[in-house]
Amino acid sequence: MNTLVVGAGALGGVITGRLLDAGAEVALATRDRASADQVLTGGVRITGVGGDVMVDVNRVAPLSDYTGQSFDLVLLATKAQAAIELAPKLVPLLAPGGTLLPIQNGGVPRHLADQVGEEYVLGGLSNLGATMIAHGVYEQRNAGHILIGELRGGNSERTTAVKQWLSQGISVRTTHNLRGSMWSKLLLNCSVTTIGAILGRTMREYVQLPLGRDVFEKTYSEALNVALALGEQPETMLVEPIPPPRTESGDTSQEYDGWFQQILENYGDTKPSMLQDFERGRSTEIEFINGYVVGLGKQNGMNVGFNEVIVAIVKAIVGGDSHPSADHLSAIIARAS
């Protein structure tokens, strides 16, 4: 498949580098000319889980330079808002029968399908944990995978074909229940990622703080309750999304603690991507993560106080009125309870 990866951040960079290292033909679209020139000069270097890679990238340019070209697969690895803005420009780049594969959080793939047509869009999400050190330089933090599937559910020939192609370089799985998988990822984004970002810590670090685990559990539980109330069926990914029951007294059970440890083992050491957004002065995806849960929860008359306070804190940090701090834990408990 003639492939264009749009976005040279952590996810796009790792996917591009590992595909090129496997011998696949891949073009990379960057945000601007300066970014493209840096990658063209220095190539892509990946360290960490999955093995070290250093490859040259011969086809790298701003997206506008690809006008008039044709691709079988356009993999969209940008932030949510950028994906929504770019999608109409990407459909003209698709060859007949070509596929647009957005890999974003929350309801972005569904939004894009409604925007440009479901026939073009194959849904995707990522469990790959990675950090961009500099343009073209990345560290992969876990042995995660890309999950793809049809938004309408079920299986398809294009899902199989895209999986086979991308599997040359990265781990890819397919699902007949993409909506459920998207909710499973969203549950972790709302808790592991966003809480870690506003505290300035990884999950493993913040759950050792007073109130840290309590805020995680209440935030996760709120989001899960919204999903279940909407009739969604969260799909098992690296971890079962629905935790085992607690004891009758409300204490954690041995099974529940084992579930919690699984989350720590798989996600506990990854630096939150939203924290990287704070550090670089970039916009966040909060409206598509905790904000998405808050909107749906309020529409259905549900209590989403923890997620709502977290959204407010993120907006305060982005606006310069606050900063990542462990002090937010007590504030969340006080304002959400």
Structure commentary:
This protein is an alpha/beta fold and 337 residues long. It has two domains: 3-176, Rossmann fold; 180-336, N-(1-d-carboxylethyl)-l-norvaline Dehydrogenase, domain 2 (Orthogonal Bundle). The chain contains 13 helices and twelve strands. It has helices at 10-21, 33-42, 80-90, 108-116, 157-166, 178-199, 203-206, 212-229, 254-267, 273-280, 290-299, 305-318, 328-336, and strands spanning 3-6, 26-30, 44-48, 53-55, 60-62, 71-76, 94-102, 123-126, 130-134, 137-140, 146-149, 172-174. It has a five-stranded parallel beta sheet, with helices on both faces. A four-stranded mixed beta sheet has the order 4-3-10-9, with helices on one face. The protein has a three-stranded mixed beta sheet with strand order 8-11-12, with helices on both faces. It is globular. The model has no long low-confidence stretch (mean pLDDT 94).
Give the CATH level 1 class of the largest domain.
Alpha Beta
Average pLDDT level: 94
- How many individual β-strands? 12
Percent helix range: 40-55%
Report the total helices: 13
Multimerization state = single chain
Specify the CATH architecture of the largest domain.
Answer: 3-Layer(aba) Sandwich
- Biggest sheet architecture: 5 strands, parallel
Numbering strands along the chain, what is their spatial order in the largest sheet? 5-2-1-6-7
**Distance between termini?**
52 Å
CATH superfamily of the largest domain: NAD(P)-binding Rossmann-like Domain
β-strand percent reads 15-25%
